[in-house]
Amino acid sequence: MNELIIRQPDDLHIHLRDGDLMSLAVEHVSAQFQRAIVMPNLSLPVVSTTMAAKYRARILSSIPAGRTFSPLMTLYLTDRTTPAEIRAAKGSGFVYGVKYYPAGATTNSDSGVTDLSARYNVLAEMSKCGLPLLVHGEVTDKSVDIFDREKVFIDSVLSKIVTEFPELKVILEHITTSDAVDFVDSCSENVAATITAHHLLLNRNDLFKGGIKPHHYCLPILKRETHRLALVRAATSGSPKYFLGTDSAPHEKGTKEAACGCAGVYTSHAAMEFYAMAFESVGALDRLEGFTSHYGAKFYGLPLNEGYVKLIKNPQKIVDQYSYPGGVVVPFKAGETLDWCCTT
Ligand code: NCD
Ligand code: ZN
Q: What was the pLDDT predicted at 108?
């Protein structure tokens, strides 16, 4: 297949940052996607509907002229989030989910929840008003091996949440293991998962191929090949429980190429091309559109987008880096040539 026309996709998990870096991230995401679920982990986290409104306005003002793009906002769940804040979020019409970061799990997660069982009144309110819980699914106990943190989280935390709140919509974000796939498959239709392009294309060997590769370091960390294959099977299965969420997370080059480098892979510059590569690798391009453009929208109760994008076999070289006023970002597959090219 050399050409594919598919309904315009949504990115159901993205980090757009703020300030200088936001313009670059918004320029890239709005070139391919109609809507995106925007993560709230700014250095000052988005913990209220008022903050989300202001952040949304800043994003809207950085959309390039002539593009239509809708940021779908999220709130950052903290130990201080109240049921009243949940009602305000739902009532706003622009907040689409609440993100749960276990405190200390990843970039800018210091304000995350220390004890989720103390937030059950908040989860009950979310369940009642139909606001999904977006989950960073890793335990933070440093004695748990980093490659096991997702599975331990599912067994010790998430399984309890879905049992306690059967009506709560839950999205296990950026899944990385066959255990996550098995769990999501075993749950009701209220439980779904996003899958990133880089977790479909890389395994943990790619962190160390020929030397340490800081631009492949993200959280949850890449896992072994058997897990990658399970993710590819889930994404290409045609199950509406799995949909596109890039987790594209730009960091300035120097903060990744460092003695203590940041976690996050930047994929927004060619997200659809990366997913096309993954689906093509198993002969499943006919299933791409459901994953990129139907299932996520349906799960969030959104109408399908009206526009279309075109993927064509037309080699493109990824640049070595993107400049922005605060520095440079090294994109995923920098300097490599991709087979596919996505246009609107
Ligand atoms: C994300 C970031 O940089 O904000 N990093 C990452 O490795 N995925 C945070 C996150 O989603 O965990
Ligand atoms: Zn993320």
A: 79
Q: In this structure, what DSSP letter does residue 168 have?
A: S
- For helices 271-281 and 19-32, the axis angle rounded to 10 degrees is 50
Single-letter amino acid, residue 317: K
Query: What is the signed CA dihedral for 199, 282, 182, 268, rounded to 10 degrees?
Result: 30
Residue of the nearest CA to atom 6 in ligand 1?
264
How many angstroms does the Cα of residue 2 sit away from the middle of ligand 1?
33
Quote the pTM value: 0.98
Helix spans in the chain (H): 19-32, 49-61, 83-92, 120-129, 149-153, 159-164, 178-186, 197-201, 225-235, 253-256, 271-281, 288-289, 295-300
Name the packing angle between helices 49-61 and 83-92 (round to 10°): 30
User: Cβ distance 168 to 123 under 8 Å?
Assistant: yes
Mean pLDDT within 183-206: 98
Choice from 106, 194, 262 to test ligand 1 binding pocket (greatest atom count within 8 A of CB): 106
**Closest atom of ligand 1 to CA, residue 109:** 9
- Residue length, the chain? 344
- For residue 93, pLDDT over 80 is answered with yes
Residue found under tokens 């969030």? 300
Average pLDDT, the chain: 97
